[in-house]
Design a protein that fits this description.
Layout: H1 16-35, E1 47-48, E2 58-62, E3 68-70, E4 73-75, H2 77-88, E5 95-100, H3 106-118, E6 122-125, E7 128-129
Length: about 130
């Protein structure tokens, strides 16, 4: 009496299901990447040729209507120093990126520079390429 095995395992691999999954993921990511709108502030940065290699921990933005933002949050100038101190602490290697519209008075940029110097922050002034 011979015992025979009825179910044999197929050695062949069908990749059609995997191909369908990959193409569906590709279509999904292509569609969702075109629908993403960055919530960035509209600033006209001054032109510059030098680029900094340091990575800032946070950004301070000054719009053309003299409103201050820390990252995307609006902030009054009087609260700017305390918010930066909460966010960054007293780390001596802390970099802040300053995004200032090119139409604002230079005095506003100097005010942020003074806050950075007082708290030993390093400031990077953002520019657009020439």
């Amino acid at each position: 009496m011979a015992i025979s095995q009825r179910n044999r395992i197929s050695v062949n691999f069908s990749s059609t299901g995997m191909t369908d999954v990959v193409f569906n993921l590709l279509i999904f990511f292509m569609l969702t990447s075109t629908l993403v709108h960055p919530s960035a502030l509209k600033l006209q940065l001054p032109k510059g040729s030098a680029q900094a290699s340091a990575k800032p921990q946070t950004t301070v933005s000054i719009t053309s209507d003299l409103k201050y933002y820390v990252e995307q949050q609006p902030v009054a100038f009087e609260e700017l120093e305390s918010i930066l101190a909460q966010k960054l602490g007293n780390d001596p290697d802390t970099y802040i990126s300053l995004h200032a519209d090119k139409t604002i008075p230079f005095e506003n940029v100097v005010n942020v520079l003074n806050i950075a110097q007082k708290n030993n922050y390093k400031l990077i002034i953002a520019t657009s390429p020439k």
